[in-house]
Amino acid sequence: MSNARLREDICRYGRSLFERGLTPGSSGNISVRLDDGGWLVTPTNASLGFLDPARLSHLDAGGRHVSGDKPTKEIPLHSALYETRGAARAIVHLHSTNAVALSMLPEIDPRAALPPMTPYCLMRAGQIALLPYYRPGDPAVADAIRGLAGKYASVLLSNHGPVVASDTLEAAVFATEELEEGAKLYLMLRNLNPRYLTPAQVKDLVREFNLDLPIVDDHGHPHDPDD
Ligand SMILES: [Zn+2]
After folding, report:
1. Tell me: the pLDDT tens digits for 78-137?
2. Considering the chain, what is the average pLDDT of its residues?
3. What gap in Å lies between CA 2 and CA 182, rounded to an integer?
4. What are phi and psi for residue 212, nearest 5 degrees?
5. How far is the CA of 80 from the centre of ligand 1 (A)?
6. Sheet bearing 90-93, strands edge to edge
7. Which of 43, 50, 90, 175 could form a Cys-Cys staple with 124, CB 3.0–4.6 A?
8. What pLDDT is stored for residue 227 in this prediction?
């Protein structure tokens, strides 16, 4: 895909996410990795609703600023996720309300932030890791991402928002939307004793769609055998 097309796509998806209220003000950021190892990244303090293709930040493979506006301060987050998810070509980070709310609940499992509720949440967002709170732009978040060892494409930052990597920008956007919908469902159903997907139903999805999910325990929660 040409860089001009990628620039247009970043702005189009950014506007769509913003207009649906999925990230307010100038929050959220998007990056795409280029064929030469460089990246296109949304600028710092830019609203995803009003991006200009010509002003996106262009970084080279070493992370040096080549052209465009100054990049988002959340570069360490993107950089660490690309480093640990070798096949990732795009990352979407939002401050979406339901996912942020989910990140603050006391009962959340840091290695499975959502229980298995719907097939599409599992198929698109996969298993979601919850990381502790870091100040936006704090380079320490990169070490926390590296600590996940590339096992999670979807990560939720406490009191902050989701960050999702995928092999295309479209897939990263769709996965972030499914994560947000999953968080919304969880909040709606919390304390109502809902029926989640059973371990057999999750195993069937894993088998049928070749999902990269860890072992599912007898309560239907995915659990990483290494933890
Ligand atoms: Zn953020």
Report:
1. 999 999 998 999 999 999 999 999 999 999 999 999 999 999 999 999 999 999 999 988
2. 92
3. 33
4. -95, 70
5. 15
6. 65-67, 57-59, 39-41, 29-33, 90-93, 161-166, 154-157, 128-131
7. 175
8. 47
How far apart are the CA of 162 and the centre of ligand 1, in A? Answer: 8
* Cα separation, 185 vs 117, whole angstroms: 8
Given the residues 13, 82, 120, 196, the one annotated as active site? 120
Task: Tokens 């769509």: give the residue.
Answer: 16
Instruction: Give the residue among 163, 185, 167 at the shortest CA–CA distance from 116.
Output: 185
pLDDT digits (tens, 9 = 90+) for 153-201: 999 999 999 999 999 999 999 999 999 999 999 999 998 999 999 999 9
Residue 120 annotated among the catalytic residues of the structure = yes
Cα(126)–Cα(1) distance, integer angstroms: 26
* Tokens coding 201: 């139903």
Let me know if 60 is exposed, middle or buried by CB neighbors in 10 A (0-12, 13-18, 19+).
Answer: middle
